[in-house]
């Protein structure tokens, strides 16, 4: 039907989360019809991100600079550190604009099933960040899933020995909920009602 | 939150049909995490399409060559011509691999509401293609909408003067359709076009 170039584009788009083969075809048709207003801007945006993309060596955020915009922002409160599982969680929390501090991305969660152990996550770098001093409060913002809470317990155990106040998101989170899917109101509630971790 | 490059990419993706702001953010995160397997292939595919994209001057299909792959294919039956409203319709019909002939894309449908007149569609070029000879049958494959059928009536009037056989897609029950769930218009069409049962 279509040329191999168009097929390749359809397949590349179909692999994005949220797009299947049918919606990828619709997207390709849209791009081809709206060459100046859709295809070219998307191409330029991808090029810009592709050439500048990097992972923040401090917090693990993905951004087009290192350190990332959040770590480099002097208006951020360096005394508060929010620990999240994934970059998507960081973005979700940051969109709510309620957390004035900085972040730390673990890169996953402890999981016996998937064989994810503490050394597979950015936990040692987190401990080092805390040992360097300057952080007064660590907010654990794991997903309200079994594995997320297991990770939070493990972190509480490790961080509990350090001289920082340890809090976690209030359990206004619905059981089984994932940060990236929650509305900002729920996130705001959970952040505002964060509590000290009982040791 | 994110840099302006990432924002621009998110916005460019969010404008695709089938993607909204949330799914665009997920797609961007996916692209940034899977740089080698997702971002780079998508970028290359877009570049390839962007540099070679053209509209077929014969049939109106969008492809990376002119004439398009269908018009240039010698195995296609040039005596059969299927007229469709949009390129998306051409692709949908061609995927079924049931039509052995070539296509003609009108680029829309007659619409009093949207002010689309016959001269806004590729009707004159269709008539010229037919007058050049070689086409025995024209299949009108407009959508089964009011505007699609208005367009089909108009085309039937114009083409009726030429020495070609004029047919249109059958209207009736869709495969898998249940009477109880079908609209009265479809049922009326199916009843009116009822055929003798082959014994």
From TrEMBL, chains A, B:
InterPro entries the UniProt entry points to: DNA_Rcmb_RecR, Rcmb_RecR, Rcmb_RecR_Znf, TOPRIM_dom, TOPRIM_RecR
Zinc finger motifs (C4-type), residue ranges: 56-71
Q: Name one Pfam family in it.
A: RecR_HhH
Q: Which UniProt keywords apply?
A: DNA damage, DNA recombination, DNA repair, Metal-binding, Zinc, Zinc-finger
Q: Which GO terms describe its molecular function?
A: DNA binding; zinc ion binding
Q: Outline the extent of the Toprim domain.
A: 79-174
GO BP term, example: DNA repair
Instruction: Please explain the role this protein plays, according to its UniProt record.
Output: May play a role in DNA repair. It seems to be involved in an RecBC-independent recombinational process of DNA repair. It may act with RecF and RecO.
> What NCBIfam families does this protein's entry cite?
recR
Q: Which family does it belong to?
A: Belongs to the RecR family.
This chain belongs to which protein, by name? Recombination protein RecR
This protein's species is Sphingomonas jatrophae
Q: Which gene encodes it?
A: recR
